[in-house]
Amino acid sequence: MEIPFQVSAVPAATEPPDALSHLEIFELARAREAALSRLLIAYISTGLVFMLLPGTFLGVWNLLQISGRESLASISPAWLQAHGHAQVFGWIGSFILGIGFYSVPKLRGTAKAVFAAAWATWAMWTIGVALRWTANIYGWRWRVMLPLSAGLELAAFLIFFYTVSQHRPQGSGKNRLEPWVWVVMSASTGLLLALVVNLAGCLEVSLHGADPAFSHVFDQRYLVLMAWGFLVPFVWGFSAKWMPVFLGLEPMYPWVLLSALALNFAGVVLTFAGWGSIATRVFVAGTVLAIWALRMFEPSRKEAKTRGVHPSFPYFIRMAYGWLLVAALLGVAAARWDSSGGIWGASRHALTVGFIAVMVMSVGQRILPAFAAMRLLWSTRLMFAALAFLTVGCALRVSCEILAYQGYAEWAWSVLPASAILELVGITAFAANIFGTFLFEPSHVQKQALVVGISQEMP
Fold it and tell me: Which helix (H) or strand (E) covers residue 119, if one does?
Protein backbone atom coordinates (compact mmCIF):
# COMPACT_ATOMS: atom_id res chain seq x y z
CA MET A 1 0.00 0.00 0.00
CA GLU A 2 1.34 3.43 -0.92
CA ILE A 3 1.75 5.98 1.88
CA PRO A 4 2.09 9.61 0.75
CA PHE A 5 3.93 10.71 3.90
CA GLN A 6 6.65 9.05 5.89
CA VAL A 7 5.93 8.59 9.58
CA SER A 8 8.56 9.16 12.21
CA ALA A 9 8.70 6.27 14.63
CA VAL A 10 10.00 8.29 17.56
CA PRO A 11 10.00 12.03 18.31
CA ALA A 12 13.09 13.68 16.84
CA ALA A 13 13.70 15.73 19.95
CA THR A 14 14.65 12.71 22.07
CA GLU A 15 16.78 9.64 21.48
CA PRO A 16 15.27 6.32 22.59
CA PRO A 17 16.73 4.97 25.80
CA ASP A 18 19.43 2.37 25.27
CA ALA A 19 17.54 -0.03 27.50
CA LEU A 20 14.66 -0.26 25.04
CA SER A 21 14.68 -3.21 22.71
CA HIS A 22 13.82 -2.93 19.02
CA LEU A 23 10.46 -4.54 19.74
CA GLU A 24 9.69 -1.98 22.45
CA ILE A 25 10.65 0.85 20.11
CA PHE A 26 8.37 -0.54 17.42
CA GLU A 27 5.54 -0.77 19.92
CA LEU A 28 6.08 2.87 20.92
CA ALA A 29 6.07 3.81 17.25
CA ARG A 30 2.80 1.95 16.65
CA ALA A 31 1.23 3.58 19.70
CA ARG A 32 2.29 7.02 18.49
CA GLU A 33 0.94 6.33 15.00
CA ALA A 34 -2.35 5.14 16.47
CA ALA A 35 -2.59 8.34 18.54
CA LEU A 36 -1.87 10.44 15.43
CA SER A 37 -4.56 8.57 13.54
CA ARG A 38 -7.12 9.19 16.30
CA LEU A 39 -6.25 12.87 16.20
CA LEU A 40 -6.62 13.00 12.42
CA ILE A 41 -9.92 11.13 12.51
CA ALA A 42 -11.27 13.67 15.04
CA TYR A 43 -10.36 16.59 12.77
CA ILE A 44 -11.67 14.92 9.61
CA SER A 45 -14.91 13.78 11.26
CA THR A 46 -15.51 17.29 12.58
CA GLY A 47 -14.91 18.71 9.13
CA LEU A 48 -17.36 16.25 7.58
CA VAL A 49 -20.06 17.20 10.10
CA PHE A 50 -19.61 20.90 9.33
CA MET A 51 -19.60 20.11 5.62
CA LEU A 52 -22.87 18.17 5.75
CA LEU A 53 -25.11 20.02 8.20
CA PRO A 54 -24.13 23.67 8.78
CA GLY A 55 -22.53 23.83 5.34
CA THR A 56 -24.16 21.89 2.52
CA PHE A 57 -27.60 21.33 4.03
CA LEU A 58 -27.95 25.03 4.84
CA GLY A 59 -26.68 25.90 1.37
CA VAL A 60 -29.31 23.66 -0.22
CA TRP A 61 -32.01 25.21 1.96
CA ASN A 62 -30.88 28.71 0.98
CA LEU A 63 -30.98 27.83 -2.71
CA LEU A 64 -34.42 26.24 -2.43
CA GLN A 65 -35.70 29.44 -0.82
CA ILE A 66 -34.07 31.61 -3.49
CA SER A 67 -35.43 29.45 -6.31
CA GLY A 68 -38.93 29.36 -4.86
CA ARG A 69 -39.08 33.13 -4.58
CA GLU A 70 -36.90 33.74 -7.66
CA SER A 71 -34.89 36.33 -5.80
CA LEU A 72 -31.49 36.35 -4.10
CA ALA A 73 -32.72 39.14 -1.81
CA SER A 74 -35.19 36.73 -0.19
CA ILE A 75 -32.42 35.16 1.93
CA SER A 76 -30.71 36.86 4.86
CA PRO A 77 -27.03 37.67 4.14
CA ALA A 78 -26.23 36.27 7.59
CA TRP A 79 -27.52 32.86 6.51
CA LEU A 80 -25.48 32.93 3.32
CA GLN A 81 -22.38 33.89 5.30
CA ALA A 82 -23.05 31.13 7.85
CA HIS A 83 -23.11 28.59 5.03
CA GLY A 84 -19.85 29.87 3.55
CA HIS A 85 -18.06 30.05 6.88
CA ALA A 86 -19.01 26.49 7.78
CA GLN A 87 -17.77 25.22 4.43
CA VAL A 88 -14.48 27.11 4.30
CA PHE A 89 -13.41 27.01 7.94
CA GLY A 90 -15.53 24.20 9.34
CA TRP A 91 -14.83 21.74 6.51
CA ILE A 92 -11.67 22.76 4.64
CA GLY A 93 -10.05 24.43 7.64
CA SER A 94 -10.54 21.38 9.86
CA PHE A 95 -9.08 19.13 7.16
CA ILE A 96 -6.02 21.37 6.75
CA LEU A 97 -5.32 21.60 10.48
CA GLY A 98 -5.74 17.86 11.00
CA ILE A 99 -3.54 16.87 8.07
CA GLY A 100 -1.04 19.54 9.08
CA PHE A 101 -0.60 18.12 12.57
CA TYR A 102 -0.45 14.57 11.22
CA SER A 103 2.03 15.31 8.46
CA VAL A 104 4.77 16.94 10.52
CA PRO A 105 6.14 14.16 12.72
CA LYS A 106 9.44 15.73 13.76
CA LEU A 107 8.45 18.49 16.14
CA ARG A 108 10.43 20.11 18.90
CA GLY A 109 9.18 19.44 22.39
CA THR A 110 7.77 16.27 23.82
CA ALA A 111 5.15 14.26 22.01
CA LYS A 112 2.77 14.88 24.92
CA ALA A 113 3.04 18.65 24.45
CA VAL A 114 2.46 18.34 20.71
CA PHE A 115 -0.65 16.24 21.18
CA ALA A 116 -1.94 18.63 23.85
CA ALA A 117 -1.52 21.54 21.44
CA ALA A 118 -3.24 19.62 18.65
CA TRP A 119 -6.26 18.72 20.78
CA ALA A 120 -6.49 22.25 22.17
CA THR A 121 -6.48 23.58 18.61
CA TRP A 122 -9.23 21.15 17.64
CA ALA A 123 -11.44 22.21 20.56
CA MET A 124 -10.97 25.94 20.03
CA TRP A 125 -11.41 25.73 16.26
CA THR A 126 -14.55 23.60 16.51
CA ILE A 127 -16.16 25.80 19.16
CA GLY A 128 -15.26 28.94 17.22
CA VAL A 129 -16.83 27.74 13.97
CA ALA A 130 -19.92 26.43 15.79
CA LEU A 131 -20.42 29.74 17.63
CA ARG A 132 -20.13 31.68 14.38
CA TRP A 133 -22.77 29.51 12.70
CA THR A 134 -25.09 29.80 15.71
CA ALA A 135 -24.72 33.56 15.89
CA ASN A 136 -25.42 34.00 12.16
CA ILE A 137 -28.42 31.68 12.06
CA TYR A 138 -30.16 32.29 15.39
CA GLY A 139 -28.84 35.75 16.27
CA TRP A 140 -28.36 34.66 19.88
CA ARG A 141 -26.14 37.23 21.66
CA TRP A 142 -24.42 37.80 18.33
CA ARG A 143 -22.66 40.99 19.40
CA VAL A 144 -20.63 38.87 21.81
CA MET A 145 -20.57 35.57 19.93
CA LEU A 146 -19.22 36.93 16.63
CA PRO A 147 -15.96 38.39 18.00
CA LEU A 148 -15.62 35.49 20.44
CA SER A 149 -15.87 32.95 17.64
CA ALA A 150 -13.38 34.87 15.48
CA GLY A 151 -10.97 35.17 18.41
CA LEU A 152 -11.12 31.43 19.10
CA GLU A 153 -10.46 30.59 15.45
CA LEU A 154 -7.50 32.95 15.27
CA ALA A 155 -6.05 31.65 18.56
CA ALA A 156 -6.43 28.05 17.38
CA PHE A 157 -4.59 28.79 14.15
CA LEU A 158 -1.78 30.57 16.01
CA ILE A 159 -1.29 27.51 18.23
CA PHE A 160 -1.22 25.34 15.11
CA PHE A 161 1.21 27.67 13.34
CA TYR A 162 3.56 27.85 16.34
CA THR A 163 3.56 24.08 16.79
CA VAL A 164 4.13 23.27 13.12
CA SER A 165 6.77 26.01 12.75
CA GLN A 166 8.96 24.08 15.20
CA HIS A 167 9.43 21.48 12.50
CA ARG A 168 12.97 21.30 11.19
CA PRO A 169 13.72 18.83 8.39
CA GLN A 170 16.68 16.65 9.27
CA GLY A 171 18.85 14.62 6.99
CA SER A 172 17.06 15.71 3.80
CA GLY A 173 20.24 16.96 2.17
CA LYS A 174 18.40 20.08 0.97
CA ASN A 175 19.41 23.55 2.06
CA ARG A 176 16.50 25.32 0.40
CA LEU A 177 12.79 24.84 0.73
CA GLU A 178 11.09 23.31 -2.27
CA PRO A 179 8.80 25.56 -4.35
CA TRP A 180 5.64 23.78 -3.24
CA VAL A 181 6.50 24.59 0.37
CA TRP A 182 6.68 28.31 -0.46
CA VAL A 183 3.26 28.08 -2.07
CA VAL A 184 1.77 26.37 0.98
CA MET A 185 3.43 28.93 3.25
CA SER A 186 1.83 31.68 1.16
CA ALA A 187 -1.54 29.98 1.55
CA SER A 188 -0.99 29.74 5.31
CA THR A 189 -0.30 33.46 5.34
CA GLY A 190 -3.53 33.94 3.40
CA LEU A 191 -5.41 31.89 6.00
CA LEU A 192 -3.89 33.97 8.80
CA LEU A 193 -4.89 37.20 7.03
CA ALA A 194 -8.41 35.85 6.46
CA LEU A 195 -8.74 35.09 10.16
CA VAL A 196 -7.45 38.54 11.13
CA VAL A 197 -9.81 40.26 8.67
CA ASN A 198 -12.63 38.05 9.94
CA LEU A 199 -11.95 39.17 13.51
CA ALA A 200 -11.85 42.83 12.44
CA GLY A 201 -15.12 42.42 10.56
CA CYS A 202 -16.80 40.70 13.48
CA LEU A 203 -15.70 43.46 15.85
CA GLU A 204 -17.02 46.11 13.47
CA VAL A 205 -20.38 44.35 13.11
CA SER A 206 -20.72 43.72 16.84
CA LEU A 207 -20.11 47.39 17.62
CA HIS A 208 -21.97 49.11 14.79
CA GLY A 209 -24.00 46.55 12.84
CA ALA A 210 -27.76 46.14 12.81
CA ASP A 211 -27.58 42.37 12.28
CA PRO A 212 -24.92 39.62 12.41
CA ALA A 213 -23.83 39.98 8.78
CA PHE A 214 -20.87 41.66 7.10
CA SER A 215 -21.68 44.55 4.78
CA HIS A 216 -21.91 43.66 1.09
CA VAL A 217 -18.73 45.45 -0.02
CA PHE A 218 -16.67 44.10 2.88
CA ASP A 219 -18.01 40.58 2.35
CA GLN A 220 -17.18 40.55 -1.36
CA ARG A 221 -13.58 41.53 -0.72
CA TYR A 222 -13.33 39.10 2.17
CA LEU A 223 -14.55 36.28 -0.09
CA VAL A 224 -11.79 37.09 -2.59
CA LEU A 225 -9.20 36.87 0.20
CA MET A 226 -10.56 33.52 1.37
CA ALA A 227 -10.84 32.06 -2.12
CA TRP A 228 -7.80 33.39 -3.97
CA GLY A 229 -5.58 34.23 -1.01
CA PHE A 230 -6.10 31.05 0.99
CA LEU A 231 -7.92 28.17 -0.73
CA VAL A 232 -6.49 28.37 -4.24
CA PRO A 233 -2.80 28.60 -3.20
CA PHE A 234 -3.25 25.67 -0.80
CA VAL A 235 -4.50 23.48 -3.64
CA TRP A 236 -1.72 24.67 -5.93
CA GLY A 237 0.92 23.89 -3.33
CA PHE A 238 -0.25 20.37 -2.60
CA SER A 239 -0.87 19.76 -6.30
CA ALA A 240 2.81 20.59 -6.88
CA LYS A 241 3.74 18.13 -4.13
CA TRP A 242 1.44 15.22 -4.94
CA MET A 243 0.25 15.37 -8.56
CA PRO A 244 3.59 14.47 -10.21
CA VAL A 245 3.36 11.21 -8.23
CA PHE A 246 -0.38 10.58 -8.28
CA LEU A 247 -0.91 11.49 -11.95
CA GLY A 248 2.58 10.69 -13.26
CA LEU A 249 3.03 14.26 -14.54
CA GLU A 250 6.22 15.75 -15.90
CA PRO A 251 8.22 17.82 -13.37
CA MET A 252 6.63 21.20 -12.82
CA TYR A 253 8.09 24.59 -13.73
CA PRO A 254 8.92 26.08 -10.30
CA TRP A 255 9.39 29.71 -11.33
CA VAL A 256 6.24 29.70 -13.38
CA LEU A 257 4.29 28.48 -10.35
CA LEU A 258 5.85 31.16 -8.14
CA SER A 259 4.98 33.75 -10.77
CA ALA A 260 1.38 32.53 -10.71
CA LEU A 261 1.43 32.89 -6.93
CA ALA A 262 2.72 36.46 -7.21
CA LEU A 263 -0.08 37.33 -9.65
CA ASN A 264 -2.59 35.76 -7.32
CA PHE A 265 -1.35 37.90 -4.43
CA ALA A 266 -1.45 41.00 -6.64
CA GLY A 267 -5.08 40.23 -7.53
CA VAL A 268 -6.05 40.10 -3.85
CA VAL A 269 -4.29 43.41 -3.18
CA LEU A 270 -6.00 45.03 -6.18
CA THR A 271 -9.38 43.81 -4.92
CA PHE A 272 -8.90 45.41 -1.50
CA ALA A 273 -7.67 48.58 -3.19
CA GLY A 274 -10.98 48.83 -5.01
CA TRP A 275 -9.76 47.74 -8.44
CA GLY A 276 -11.75 44.54 -8.61
CA SER A 277 -12.25 44.60 -12.37
CA ILE A 278 -8.50 44.61 -13.00
CA ALA A 279 -8.05 41.95 -10.32
CA THR A 280 -10.30 39.51 -12.18
CA ARG A 281 -8.00 39.66 -15.20
CA VAL A 282 -4.97 39.15 -12.99
CA PHE A 283 -6.59 36.02 -11.51
CA VAL A 284 -7.10 34.63 -15.03
CA ALA A 285 -3.41 35.20 -15.83
CA GLY A 286 -2.35 33.55 -12.57
CA THR A 287 -4.62 30.57 -13.20
CA VAL A 288 -3.22 30.04 -16.68
CA LEU A 289 0.34 30.20 -15.35
CA ALA A 290 -0.46 27.76 -12.53
CA ILE A 291 -1.98 25.21 -14.92
CA TRP A 292 1.03 25.58 -17.19
CA ALA A 293 3.48 25.32 -14.28
CA LEU A 294 1.85 22.15 -12.94
CA ARG A 295 1.61 20.74 -16.51
CA MET A 296 -1.85 19.60 -15.55
CA PHE A 297 -3.15 19.01 -19.06
CA GLU A 298 0.03 17.60 -20.59
CA PRO A 299 0.35 13.85 -21.24
CA SER A 300 1.58 11.93 -18.20
CA ARG A 301 5.08 10.50 -18.34
CA LYS A 302 4.12 7.63 -16.03
CA GLU A 303 0.98 5.69 -15.33
CA ALA A 304 -1.27 7.35 -12.76
CA LYS A 305 -1.31 5.73 -9.32
CA THR A 306 -4.94 4.72 -8.90
CA ARG A 307 -4.46 1.68 -6.70
CA GLY A 308 -7.10 1.74 -3.95
CA VAL A 309 -9.18 4.47 -5.62
CA HIS A 310 -11.46 4.67 -8.64
CA PRO A 311 -9.67 4.75 -12.03
CA SER A 312 -11.44 8.04 -12.84
CA PHE A 313 -9.32 9.82 -10.22
CA PRO A 314 -6.95 11.54 -12.75
CA TYR A 315 -9.86 12.80 -14.86
CA PHE A 316 -11.59 14.47 -11.93
CA ILE A 317 -8.33 16.15 -10.88
CA ARG A 318 -7.89 17.64 -14.35
CA MET A 319 -11.57 18.53 -14.49
CA ALA A 320 -11.16 20.49 -11.25
CA TYR A 321 -8.48 22.64 -12.84
CA GLY A 322 -10.81 23.21 -15.75
CA TRP A 323 -13.38 24.51 -13.26
CA LEU A 324 -10.75 26.86 -11.83
CA LEU A 325 -10.21 28.41 -15.25
CA VAL A 326 -13.99 28.69 -15.74
CA ALA A 327 -14.27 30.43 -12.36
CA ALA A 328 -11.58 32.95 -13.25
CA LEU A 329 -13.12 33.72 -16.66
CA LEU A 330 -16.57 34.10 -15.13
CA GLY A 331 -15.07 36.61 -12.73
CA VAL A 332 -14.02 38.76 -15.69
CA ALA A 333 -17.51 38.41 -17.18
CA ALA A 334 -19.12 39.32 -13.86
CA ALA A 335 -17.07 42.49 -13.57
CA ARG A 336 -18.43 43.61 -16.94
CA TRP A 337 -21.97 42.32 -17.20
CA ASP A 338 -23.31 41.14 -13.84
CA SER A 339 -26.50 42.94 -12.87
CA SER A 340 -28.02 40.67 -10.23
CA GLY A 341 -25.22 38.67 -8.59
CA GLY A 342 -25.77 35.64 -10.82
CA ILE A 343 -22.45 35.67 -12.68
CA TRP A 344 -20.53 36.47 -9.51
CA GLY A 345 -22.30 33.62 -7.76
CA ALA A 346 -21.58 31.24 -10.62
CA SER A 347 -17.91 32.21 -10.56
CA ARG A 348 -17.63 31.57 -6.81
CA HIS A 349 -19.50 28.28 -7.13
CA ALA A 350 -17.26 27.09 -9.96
CA LEU A 351 -14.26 27.86 -7.75
CA THR A 352 -15.47 26.55 -4.38
CA VAL A 353 -17.36 23.47 -5.60
CA GLY A 354 -15.97 22.74 -9.06
CA PHE A 355 -12.34 23.32 -8.07
CA ILE A 356 -11.92 23.18 -4.29
CA ALA A 357 -14.54 20.57 -3.39
CA VAL A 358 -13.71 18.26 -6.30
CA MET A 359 -10.00 18.45 -5.44
CA VAL A 360 -10.62 17.81 -1.74
CA MET A 361 -12.97 14.92 -2.44
CA SER A 362 -10.59 13.40 -5.00
CA VAL A 363 -7.33 13.75 -3.07
CA GLY A 364 -9.03 13.20 0.29
CA GLN A 365 -10.25 9.77 -0.69
CA ARG A 366 -6.75 9.06 -2.01
CA ILE A 367 -4.77 9.95 1.13
CA LEU A 368 -7.06 9.95 4.18
CA PRO A 369 -7.49 6.16 4.40
CA ALA A 370 -3.70 5.75 4.50
CA PHE A 371 -3.34 8.46 7.13
CA ALA A 372 -6.07 6.91 9.29
CA ALA A 373 -3.93 4.04 10.56
CA MET A 374 -3.21 2.67 7.06
CA ARG A 375 -6.71 1.73 5.99
CA LEU A 376 -8.09 1.08 2.52
CA LEU A 377 -10.86 3.19 1.04
CA TRP A 378 -14.22 1.65 1.86
CA SER A 379 -15.73 1.86 -1.65
CA THR A 380 -14.15 3.01 -4.91
CA ARG A 381 -17.57 2.96 -6.58
CA LEU A 382 -18.95 5.30 -3.95
CA MET A 383 -15.98 7.56 -4.63
CA PHE A 384 -16.91 7.77 -8.31
CA ALA A 385 -20.59 8.33 -7.49
CA ALA A 386 -19.75 11.17 -5.10
CA LEU A 387 -17.57 12.97 -7.63
CA ALA A 388 -19.98 12.37 -10.51
CA PHE A 389 -23.02 13.72 -8.62
CA LEU A 390 -21.05 16.72 -7.39
CA THR A 391 -19.71 17.54 -10.86
CA VAL A 392 -23.09 17.27 -12.60
CA GLY A 393 -24.74 19.33 -9.87
CA CYS A 394 -22.03 21.99 -10.13
CA ALA A 395 -22.41 22.20 -13.93
CA LEU A 396 -26.17 22.71 -13.59
CA ARG A 397 -25.75 25.23 -10.77
CA VAL A 398 -23.15 27.36 -12.54
CA SER A 399 -24.98 27.49 -15.86
CA CYS A 400 -28.51 27.94 -14.50
CA GLU A 401 -27.49 30.49 -11.88
CA ILE A 402 -26.38 32.79 -14.68
CA LEU A 403 -29.48 32.12 -16.78
CA ALA A 404 -31.92 32.52 -13.90
CA TYR A 405 -30.45 35.40 -11.91
CA GLN A 406 -29.68 37.45 -15.02
CA GLY A 407 -33.19 36.88 -16.36
CA TYR A 408 -32.06 35.08 -19.50
CA ALA A 409 -34.25 31.97 -19.00
CA GLU A 410 -37.18 31.57 -16.62
CA TRP A 411 -37.00 27.77 -16.73
CA ALA A 412 -33.54 27.83 -15.14
CA TRP A 413 -35.10 28.65 -11.74
CA SER A 414 -36.68 25.17 -11.68
CA VAL A 415 -33.32 23.50 -12.39
CA LEU A 416 -31.45 25.14 -9.52
CA PRO A 417 -33.09 23.00 -6.79
CA ALA A 418 -32.15 19.85 -8.73
CA SER A 419 -28.55 21.03 -8.90
CA ALA A 420 -28.50 21.55 -5.14
CA ILE A 421 -29.92 18.08 -4.48
CA LEU A 422 -27.33 16.47 -6.77
CA GLU A 423 -24.51 18.25 -4.97
CA LEU A 424 -25.97 17.23 -1.60
CA VAL A 425 -26.05 13.59 -2.75
CA GLY A 426 -22.42 13.82 -3.87
CA ILE A 427 -21.27 15.43 -0.62
CA THR A 428 -23.20 12.86 1.43
CA ALA A 429 -21.68 9.98 -0.54
CA PHE A 430 -18.20 11.39 0.10
CA ALA A 431 -18.88 11.69 3.83
CA ALA A 432 -20.35 8.18 3.94
CA ASN A 433 -17.27 6.78 2.21
CA ILE A 434 -14.86 8.44 4.64
CA PHE A 435 -16.92 7.46 7.69
CA GLY A 436 -17.23 3.94 6.27
CA THR A 437 -13.46 3.82 5.91
CA PHE A 438 -12.95 4.89 9.53
CA LEU A 439 -15.60 2.50 10.92
CA PHE A 440 -15.50 -0.61 8.76
CA GLU A 441 -12.04 -0.88 7.22
CA PRO A 442 -9.44 -2.53 9.44
CA SER A 443 -6.26 -0.71 10.44
CA HIS A 444 -3.04 -2.19 9.11
CA VAL A 445 -0.71 -0.35 11.48
CA GLN A 446 -0.27 -3.34 13.76
CA LYS A 447 0.77 -5.48 10.79
CA GLN A 448 3.57 -3.12 9.72
CA ALA A 449 7.10 -2.92 11.05
CA LEU A 450 7.28 0.85 11.38
CA VAL A 451 11.00 1.45 10.94
CA VAL A 452 10.57 4.74 9.11
CA GLY A 453 12.34 7.56 10.87
CA ILE A 454 14.30 5.38 13.36
CA SER A 455 17.92 6.39 13.49
CA GLN A 456 20.23 4.06 11.61
CA GLU A 457 22.81 4.55 14.38
CA MET A 458 20.68 2.66 16.87
CA PRO A 459 22.10 -0.69 17.99
Answer: helix 111-138
